[in-house]
Amino acid sequence: MPKALWIAHVEVTDADSYGRYAQGAGPAIAGHGGKFIARGGRYVTLEGKDRARNVVAVFPSLEAAETCYHSPEYQAALDHARGASVRDLVIVELMDDASL
Asked: Which positions fall inside the DUF1330 domain (predicted)?
């Protein structure tokens, strides 16, 4: 089964609330087999809307990433991000021969 990437582009509008989101989201993501491979590092926007925070996590599968998103643990964390950020989030399945 191919791995999947969880890719988020975020504009934080309330740092305190978003910090509470991050505290809960990290363990929820790890609990579903997710591992951060990029988080808040340097980036270049070539097209589209610029969002200053970019996060990529790799999961064992698309299903694991989606299950994480809908899990009670992640949803509890996400409550802190709602109203504290503008976010785009997508899960992308890797090609079978991609190695991460």
From this structure: 3-93
| Distance in angstroms (rounded) separating the CA atoms of residues 47 and 23 | 30
Q: What is the CA radius of gyration of the chain?
A: 13
With contact defined as beta carbons under 8 Å apart, do 94 and 5 qualify? yes
Give the C-alpha separation, 74 to 68, whole Å: 6
CA of 93: how far to CAs of 17, 26, 59, 86, in Å?
30, 20, 9, 24
Q: Which domains are seen in the chain, by residue range?
A: 4-93 (3.30.70.100)
Give pLDDT tens digits for 75-84: 999 999 999 9
User: pLDDT tens-digit profile of 10-50?
Assistant: 999 999 999 999 999 999 999 999 999 999 899 999 999 99
Q: Is 63 exposed, middle or buried (0-12, 13-18, 19+ CB in 10 A)?
A: middle
